Amino acid sequence: MSALATQTGAINLGQGFPDTDGPAAMLDRAVHAIRSGANQYPPGPGVMELRQAVSEHRAEHYALAYDPAGEVLVTVGATEAIAAAVLALCEPGDEVIAFEPYYDSYAASIALAQARLVGVTLRPVEGRFAFDPDELRAAVTSRTRMILVNSPHNPTGTVFTRAELTVIAELCQEHDLIAVTDEVYEHLTFDGAPHIPLATLPGMRERTVMISSAGKTFSVTGWKTGWVCAPAELVTAVQTVKQFLTFTASAPWQVAVAFGLRHEGEWIAALRASLQDKRDRLMDGLTAAGFEVFKPAGTYFVQTDIRPLGFTDGLEFTRRLPELAGVVAIPTQVFYDRPERGGHFVRFAFCKKDEVIDEAVARLKRLSV
Ligand SMILES: *Cc1c(COP(=O)(O)O)cnc(C)c1O
């Protein structure tokens, strides 16, 4: 879809990367780190300064204690953390439950581990995408090893509530499952919606591999710097795989992200506020253009239903959208195991400059005339 945007000159509200930079002082720290010699292999688990900053950040935001020596592992983005966790903890034939639609790397990582992905579908209920607790319970079998939980959730924008997380936590304990949590949008929630890490629920810290990343938090998706927090034996397992994927993550970014976690809290708060405005700007425009719009409580993304515009297939719709309106979006069906369940949904990203959103909205109005 990004290639289609380039070819046609359409505005790209498809891929979810921001079009503005991260905090200037943090960028300067990366330059400084390179200039002052942080250019050789860092230790396998990551630069100690970053592991310490991650540990402090977990304690401050979530009252979770992780020992920087043994319970924190720096990875090449959340993507590597997810792959290493799945490869480390699943045997061939194991089942991994993930909420569908899901981030595309999950299915690939699970396939590499020769495990089986079992999708539990999120469906619109009262304006937000949610799962049916009975359907989740029914998905657990004797082969289930792991639940992959992404909240705030890409691509639906759902932020799981404490009640929803409690259902997941109880199942994990009842069936002795490991939870792997993808929390890359932990700071990007709106209207005061709290992000609750699954590891903070009773009995969950000891069975949860908690994954975060600097990419979305600091608008540096190209830095590919993420981290895992978990009990030592789980971190050791993940690190054993990570060692032969990449051995270690790039040094300069680690130094800079440690600085960001310690000093850029206000910048993150400003990003969150600005994204909430952008969300509202895009939602108003999409509503005016005739879409049914689902209000996201977090992330960069708005889900829409295209049926009020007279379309039923999101793939066909998004292929034609550059010609119809000069805009590119993503057909949500690509995030499903069973594409027919998401055939009529289309995802738009709002992590873009206001003038870009305004121009896209003006163009999309063509759809309703
Ligand atoms: C962007 C994204 C990732 C990837 O994070 P990196 O740190 O860039 O690897 C993982 N999960 C979700 C849900 C994402 O949206």
TrEMBL record:
SUPFAM superfamilies: PLP-dependent transferases. Keywords: Aminotransferase, Pyridoxal phosphate, Transferase. Residues 10-364 form the Aminotransferase class I/classII large domain. The keyword Transferase applies. GO terms for cellular component: cytoplasm. It holds the Pfam family Aminotran_1_2. Transmembrane segments: none annotated. Its cofactor is pyridoxal 5'-phosphate. One of its GO terms (molecular function) is kynurenine-oxoglutarate transaminase activity. Belongs to the class-I pyridoxal-phosphate-dependent aminotransferase family. This is Aminotransferase. It comes from Nonomuraea glycinis.
